[in-house]
Amino acid sequence: MKTEQLECFRRILLEKKEDVEARVEQLKNGDIHTNKDDLYDDVDAASVDTDHNLLFRIRGREAHLIKKIDEALEQIDAGTYGVCAECGEDINIERLKARPVAPLCIACKEEQEKMEKRKGR
Length: 121
Ligand SMILES: [Zn+2]
Prior knowledge:
mainly alpha, binds zinc ion, 2 domains
């Protein structure tokens, strides 16, 4: 990949990371009320517990995402960004633009999803 493309993705990834970190910060303050109404149509007695689990799940997901972003940034530094971790082929630029943390090309990703379905996950 060209240096200017790499720099472009570096900017995208850093912005994304800032977004995620801001969201994590909001979660710490317990401020997830913004789209809570969309998530719960019928709130019942178990809602307090559900809130807790939801918060936990979101935090886990954000932490995972930050890790992915860091890995992608390291790959940019190493000059290996945009190469499929599975088959070593270049990942389609359009795919990277849509999902800048994508570690696999589309073919390998589909293969992985098939495998996961077979495992019953
Ligand atoms: Zn691949």
